[in-house]
Design goal:
elongated, single chain, alpha+beta, two-stranded antiparallel sheet
Length: 284
């Protein structure tokens, strides 16, 4: 039985040596070399450089620096450099570390944004921090790698969405004021001085009386002016003597409305035309 185990171990050892030999055959280039299409090994170019001309039996690899906005960040046997990453503001990004010939651009989130996709120490895509709604407060402020966290205000407090702690509603009674509008989760209570009803009446009633008196005085002045102009009209005496006082007043009122403060000179102010407010002739 022991001899059988030793024979099996010997077979496994031989197989391992065989496969290692095959691997060495396929990976015959040194660590700092690259393999061409024809299987020939050439020295690699340093980071920041690319292959311009492959090596030959008599010459080594010819390398040239990467152009602007391109890079290679490792020893290589590449014919072309990689394009530098562009930090797109439309993706919520800005430059953190600028691109060089031997390193790519490193992007970071704009202010008010947080990264949602990272690669090799840089951010690829970012999003805006959410804004808390009125009635919520900022429980945890957003960072470059974490979104804002919001929470609801409790009863008796309020926040417009930008506060980091909900504020208690103002107590108008404690301030010696009257509550005009109660507070909500998004706004404070409104306080003010309550005006007594008697004071309101004391202001409005005299104001109404003053306006009424002014209107009456103005009307009387206009009436007097209209009568004075009409007295110069040869038909004026005829008007006055042929109508009652109420109709005379109506006629003068029609004169005032229809003639724009100019007297009506209808042949007879007692006529139906004038009484109905139709004044066909005006004194100019």
């Amino acid at each position: 039985m022991i001899c059988g185990l030793n024979f099996f171990s010997f077979i496994v050892l031989i197989a391992a040596i065989f496969f290692m030999t095959i691997e060495l055959c396929f990976c015959g280039c040194a660590r700092a070399e690259y393999q061409r299409e024809n299987g020939e090994c050439c020295p690699m170019c340093a980071p920041g450089n690319r292959v311009y001309r492959h090596c030959t039996e008599d010459t080594s690899t010819t390398c040239v620096p990467c152009l602007d906005s391109t890079f290679i960040d490792a020893p290589n046997g590449l014919r072309e450099c990689f394009s530098c990453t562009v930090c797109d503001p439309g993706q919520g990004l800005r430059v953190n570390i600028a691109c060089t010939r031997s390193s790519n651009t490193v992007c970071e989130p704009l202010d008010g944004h947080y990264c949602i996709d990272q690669h090799r120490g840089g951010c690829i895509v970012a999003q805006k921090h959410i804004k808390c709604r009125p009635g919520q407060y900022v429980k945890h402020k957003g960072t470059a790698f974490k979104d804002t966290e919001c929470a609801e205000c409790s009863d008796g407090t309020f926040s417009n969405g930008s506060l980091q702690i909900c504020q208690p509603h103002s107590k108008c009674e404690d301030l010696g004021l009257t509550e005009i509008k109660p507070g909500t989760l998004s706004s404070d209570a409104e306080c003010g001085n309550k005006i007594p009803a008697g004071l309101i009446a004391g202001i409005i009633v005299p104001l109404v009386v003053t306006i009424a008196v002014a209107v009456i005085i103005l009307f009387l002045k206009i009436k007097r002016k209209t009568v004075w102009h009409a007295s110069n009209n040869p038909y004026f005496p005829f008007k006055k003597c042929c109508m009652p006082s109420l109709l005379y007043f109506t006629c003068n009122l029609n004169i005032l409305l229809k003639c724009g403060f100019r007297p009506c000179i209808s042949i007879s102010c007692c006529s139906r035309n004038c009484i109905r407010g139709i004044c066909k002739h005006c004194f100019t």
